[in-house]
Amino acid sequence: MHEIIVLMRGVPFLSYLRLSIYMAIVSVAIVVSFHLRSQPSALELRIAKPLGIIFWILAFACLLVGFGNYTSPYIHYLCPGYCTLLTTFQKR
């Protein structure tokens, strides 16, 4: 039964990975400022790069959270003392 739970940990990781890729694509689209019929205004061009960077940072953070959730069961096997150290900090 434990093996099934460990194998199912990959399913949320794939969801985080998909969300991260979508957010990275949106960030590129914002920075490039796709306009098919008209030119982007000066305000759009000025806001595009910071907004795209914010989306890219969120995409990277989402990828890190997914990877952290995926690897969390394996940390218990690799570092047995890590759990006690972590619970000590959470109780404070």
TrEMBL record:
<keyword id="KW-0812">Transmembrane</keyword>
<keyword id="KW-1133">Transmembrane helix</keyword>
<dbReference type="Pfam" id="PF02656">
    <property type="entry name" value="DUF202"/>
</dbReference>
<keyword id="KW-0472">Membrane</keyword>
<dbReference type="InterPro" id="IPR003807">
    <property type="entry name" value="DUF202"/>
</dbReference>
<dbReference type="InterPro" id="IPR052053">
    <property type="entry name" value="IM_YidH-like"/>
</dbReference>
<feature type="transmembrane region" description="Helical">
    <location>
        <begin position="16"/>
        <end position="36"/>
    </location>
</feature>
<feature type="transmembrane region" description="Helical">
    <location>
        <begin position="48"/>
        <end position="68"/>
    </location>
</feature>
<feature type="domain" description="DUF202">
    <location>
        <begin position="13"/>
        <end position="71"/>
    </location>
</feature>
<protein>
    <recommendedName>
        <fullName>DUF202 domain-containing protein</fullName>
    </recommendedName>
</protein>
